[in-house]
Amino acid sequence: MARYSGPVCKLCRREGTKLFLKGERCYSEKCSVDQRNYPPGQHGPTIRIKMLAYGKQLREKQKAKRTYGVLERQFRRYYQYAARRPGVTGENLLQAIESRLDNIVYRLGFAPSRAAARQLVRHRHIEVNGQRVSIPSYQVRPGDKVAVRKESREMEMIHESMRRLGKAREMAWLSLDKATLTGEMLEMPSREDIQIPLEEQLIVELYSK
Q: Class for domain 100-187, per CATH?
């Protein structure tokens, strides 16, 4: 499957906000957004471009895609799924993406970033309801239990992530047993639970044209 393999700090600078793509570095003083909070490019911080309505909508879509590591075709399918469901389309969209297995692994603190969480899933270190799952886009549902495989519980990366970043990611809609490295999705997250600076209505307006 295709994926972005370039420098991720440029993505944060382009969107003008932290997307937390590099784990612990994003919380430190080395974060590129804190040091150079302007879009990347040879012209530096001197160029200012007036943003039109379409540009704002596009930036919100790009911000969401880059935050969750989803490419265009898959992101559009998430929108189409959200539009068919009853309720607010923007909130349905965020709930669908937040329910991805790689995002749940990241939210539980098993990995320092979503990219690292995706790798854990791909390498079959994660179980859902006792069964190994290697598909990062697998949709976790309320009541599902996500755990690190017994054979993988001694991985240094997992324990380091739990020690440094686990507490910062505690979510009301997730429960975690740190002793067994097992988490459970208690309910679908509400918009207030999803602490990401996104204006999802602009994404809905973009795709509704």
A: alpha beta
